Each structure stands twice: as structure tokens, then as C-alpha cells.
Amino acid sequence: MQTVTLNNGVEMPILGFGVYQIPPEQTEQAVADALAAGYRSLDTAAAYGNEEAVGRAIRSSGIPREDLFVTTKLWISDAGEDKAKPAFDTSLRKLGLDYLDLYLIHQPYGDVYGSWRALERLHGEGLVRAIGVSNFYPDRLVDLIDHNEVTPAVNQIETHPFFQRTADQDLMRERGVQIESWGPFAEGRNNLFTDPVLSKIAAAHGKSVAQVVLRWLVQRGVVVIPKSVRAERMAENSDIFGFQLTDDQMAAVATLDTGASLFFDHRDPAMVSRLGNVTLGS
Ligand SMILES: NC(=O)c1ccc[n+]([C@@H]2O[C@H](COP(=O)([O-])OP(=O)(O)OC[C@H]3O[C@@H](n4cnc5c(N)ncnc54)[C@H](OP(=O)(O)O)[C@@H]3O)[C@@H](O)[C@H]2O)c1
């Protein structure tokens, strides 16, 4: 499995499996199928409500812990120096693990600085191999880096053909932060799977649009964590290492960028307030 090297030397698979919006009762089977298909990196979050099911699938797979790369995320209602550690312990317990590979601050809201100090401590204690953030725009990322000890290893952000984040990626590269894409297919929005530019490239390689999109991201050095509940798509989405887009094809995909989110703007005050008030069930 191809990996990227994070800023603290930890190797992270460039391809993983995301479980957002998979209902808890379907998650164990989906993760079992993903592991059987060869995925070794799993991305969940306290807010997804399916950490326990991910943990069950890990245990029943029999795959050695050190062969897996497990990410989960701290939700806003658990932000702060005092709350982040118990929230981490809860995630670890639900996953049935004794350490995490990557722990992310899920959203750039609430007491992010307190959370980060707690994460730095967890990292220092060896309970998590790498720490990072998600949904941080460059201004907030730079501020966090400049006023703390540990630079986030990863920033997981919306990245797909319609919102390509190339300038953000350049800044992250300068600052030693690995970009990780969420929503690589934009969850199918904008008719991504039938887009003419992507379809033409796919036909030229005898591949699917999904494979072209993931290949395009991986070729840019972006970590991807596509989600599917269908075993045949899991296999398809992992078969992206045997072909390469040409410079012309990379340039053609570049024309699809709209420079804006297809979901919501993390800097919209109404959204900041709405998300900031979402609390987690037990
Ligand atoms: N940090 C954050 O705030 C954040 C936000 C969103 C997502 N994420 C993470 O990123 C992961 C991926 O993003 P996402 O789940 O939002 O969306 P996505 O991976 O862009 O898209 C998933 C959708 O594409 C479909 N699909 C998957 N493979 C396909 C294929 N080969 N052909 C056609 N359709 C296909 C899936 O349907 P089926 O399942 O029916 O196949 C599903 O509807 C998440 O699971 C989560 O781990 C993080």
C-alpha cells in the first residue's frame, strides 16, 4: 500500500475507507468488507455514531493492530483542555483500541486551543501516533501552528474536482501539513459520476470516473478516504495504482474547479453557530 510520510515520520496509507453516513447497524459489515478488500486505513468520528461497529469489525477481522491505521475525531461539544481527554478515552473504548493512529479536531470551532493542548499531551503520552485537524481554512491553520508546539500532521478538508484546494495544499505543504480529502466524489453532487470531462478520461484508461477522481487526487499527493457500502465499489475504489493521468488529463481536471464548497462554507456565521450547537448522544 502506498503511503505518505507525516511530519513526525509516521507513515499513513494514501488510500483509506471512510464511514460517514453509514448507519451503525450497517457499519460492521461495511468495514469488514473494506478490510477484506484490502483497505487498512479507516476514518470515523465520534460524531458519526459508529465507532463501536468499526471496533467490532476490526476485532473480528483478526488483522494485527499494527497493520491498521485508525482515525477518529473530536467533536465540538467535547472541545477544551478538560473535555478532550475524556472524549478521546470514550472513542478509544468504543473502538476497543489502546491507541489511535490519528486523532483530529473535527471542526475549527469552540475551544480549539484547549483541545489542541490536550491532543499534544495525548500524543506525548504515546496514546495517538499523530494528531491533526479537519475543516481548517489556511488562516486558522496558520494561527494554530504559529501558537502551539506541535504542527498538525494532517488537515482533512473537502477536496474533489469541483473544489480542488490547490492553493491550500501549497500552503499546507510549506507548513508540513498533509492534505487529506473528504468527499472525494463530492458525494456525487454536480453529477460527478457522469461529468463529461471525467468520463472522457475514464474511457481513455478503461477505468471508471470514480477511479479517475481518486487517481487524480493520489497523483496530487492527497490522501483519500472514499466511502461506499458496496463491496464491488470498495474494490473498484482501491484499484487506482496501476495507471496514471497524463499532464493533459491533469490539466483537464483542473478546469472543473469552482473554487467553492459544494456543501457549506465553514466561515458562514450561521453555519458556525448551527454546527457549534450540535451535541453528541452517548
Ligand atoms: N471531516 C469532515 O468534516 C468530513 C466530512 C465528510 C466526510 N468525511 C470523511 O470522508 C469520507 C468520504 O466522504 P463522503 O462519505 O462524504 O463522500 P464520498 O466518498 O465523496 O462519496 C460517497 C458516495 O459515493 C458513492 N460511491 C462510492 N464509490 C462509488 C463508485 N465507485 N461509483 C459510484 N458511486 C460511488 C457512495 O454510494 P454507496 O455507498 O451506495 O456506494 C456514496 O453515495 C467519509 O466517509 C468520512 O470518513 C469527513
TrEMBL record:
GO terms for molecular function: oxidoreductase activity. Keywords: NADP, Oxidoreductase. Its EC number is 1.1.1.-. It is an enzyme of class 1 (oxidoreductase). It comes from the Bacteria. The keyword Transport does not apply. The keyword NADP applies. CDD domains: AKR_AKR5F1. InterPro entries: AKR (IPR020471), Aldo/ket_reductase_CS (IPR018170), NAD(P)_OxRdtase_dom_sf (IPR036812), NADP_OxRdtase_dom (IPR023210). Residues 21-256 form the NADP-dependent oxidoreductase domain. Belongs to the aldo/keto reductase family. This is Aldo/keto reductase. It comes from Streptomyces incanus.
